[in-house]
Amino acid sequence: MKITKRGVLSVLVVLAFAGMVFFFAGRQAAETGKRQELHQRSLFAMDTFFSLKVYGAEAEEGLKTCETKIKELEHCFSVTDPESEIAAANRMGGGQVSYDTYTCVEKALEIGTKTDGALDITLYPVLRAWGFTTGEYHVPEESEITELMQYVNAAGVGTTVNDGQYELILEEGMELDLGAVAKGYTGDCLVEILKQYKVSGGLLDLGGNIQFFGAKPDQTAWKIAVKDPFDVSRQIGILELRGEGAVVTSGNYERYFVDDAGVRYGHILDPETGRPVESDLASVTIVGGTGTESDGLSTALFVKGKEGAIRFWRKYRNFGMILVGQDGCVLVTEDLAPDFELNGDPGKIPQMEILYGA
Ligand code: ADP
Ligand code: MG
After folding, report:
1. Which protein residue has the closest C-alpha to ligand 1 atom 22?
2. Which residues line ligand 1 (CB under 6 A)?
3. What is this structure's pTM?
4. Is pLDDT above 90 for 344?
5. 144 backbone dihedrals φ, ψ, rounded to 5°
6. Are 91 and 99 spatial neighbours (Cβ–Cβ below 8 Å)?
């Protein structure tokens, strides 16, 4: 066989081309692999366990930034840390605060107004008397509750922005607790951070507050369990959701105490009485667009009870809701029903009803 120069050149060109194809295909495969890799972080923060699961090439960097942000927000919101921003504001009758503390207060006040005061961040003096923020539980005297209720007045919280400085103004004796929205607000911040990195999707569990965004590499829906309020080791069902949103549940089964007479006191207070809510609901699950709104609404609609929650949902209809009654009945809003599957082994949960708009 005669080997010509042209022949050698052609072979070389073909080989070089094939090499390039292999090189770029390999790189793309590696990139795709990276995009699909699951990165996880578990940590204890805000008095609960956080578990962050994120897919994407820059997920590790994103998670590191999230950890820093969680610590920063804890320093803003923790009422039990005397060094926190909210604790300082409570001591000083307000003062300058960070953008995050300010925004979280503003959003909580908004939800408070929208829910006719069912969410009230000025309940803190009363909550403290019950020991719900420290775990040193006790039933206060009626006179003590009446005395402390004079400081509960969300309409009296002042918020101003001057030259980019954020400020809170509290009335004499007034103190704030952002516990009902802090985890939801934190979740929203983490989702915003992660979106700035090359992250294709994530499922964040902030002590039971779930936030999801983007998609899983296999494009299947996010599966989110809803706990059985009568037995937290079980679940009443599974939500299968896509896109972006939050799933937040409130109930008095999470944090409560029982006195010597066997009476049970839950950690969600009725702002009208200053006493634990005696709700006909065992739990309220909200599926909404943002963590802050879903967290605030789950607490507020638990306060409102079944009829109040239904009325509120029929008025707004911009979120989904699962109510579990004290009687064990499960009520699921119509928009959510196709995405919710009741547990096959329902325990105390007898049936599911679909809630329709008016
Ligand atoms: P968790 O934080 O346990 O998941 P929630 O989001 O429902 O539950 O918030 C409950 C917390 O909010 C309580 O522990 C208390 O600090 C505070 N809180 C209780 N009742 C109210 C209320 N009516 N309005 C605002 N905050 C409340
Ligand atoms: Mg809440």
Report:
1. 119
2. 119-121, 123, 127, 132-133, 177, 179-180, 183, 208, 250, 254-255, 267-269, 271, 295, 298-299, 303
3. 0.91
4. no
5. -65, -40
6. no
Check if the beta carbon of residue 347 is closer than 8 Å to that of residue 339: no
From CA 341, how far away is CA 233, in angstroms rounded? Answer: 18
Residue 104 tokens, joined: 């979280």
The answer to whether the Cα torsion of 78, 84, 89, 90 is positive or negative is: positive
Both tokens assigned to 32: 């795709």
Q: Which two tokens stand for residue 316?
A: 């707004």
Q: Is the pLDDT of residue 166 over 80?
A: yes
- Of the listed ligands, the closest to the CA of 272 is 1
Cβ–Cβ under 8 Å, residues 284 and 336:
no
* Cα 269 to middle of ligand 1, angstroms: 8
Q: 48: which strand partners?
A: 45
146-155 long-range CB contacts below 8 Å, 24 or more apart? 146/274, 148/274, 149/274, 151/122, 151/125, 151/175, 152/120, 152/122, 152/123, 152/125, 152/126, 152/271, 152/274, 153/122, 154/109, 154/112, 154/113, 154/117, 154/120, 154/121, 154/122
Return the residue whose CA atom lies nearest to atom 20 of ligand 1.
Answer: 268
Ligand 1 binding pocket mutation candidate from 80, 130, 185, 299 (most atoms within 8 A of CB): 299
- Among 70, 62, 65, 61, which Cα is nearest to 43's? 70
Average pLDDT (52-73) is 97
Quick: pLDDT tens for 189-205: 999 999 999 899 999 99
- Block residue for tokens 């920063």: 72
- Kindly tell me the burial class for residue 11, based on how many C-beta atoms sit within 10 Å of its own C-beta (0-12, 13-18, 19 or more): exposed
CA 88 and chain centroid, separation: 25
Polymer length in residues for the chain: 358
**What one-letter code names the amino acid at 274?**
G
Tell me if residue 293 falls in helix, strand or coil. helix
Residues 6+ apart with CB under 8 A from 196: 62
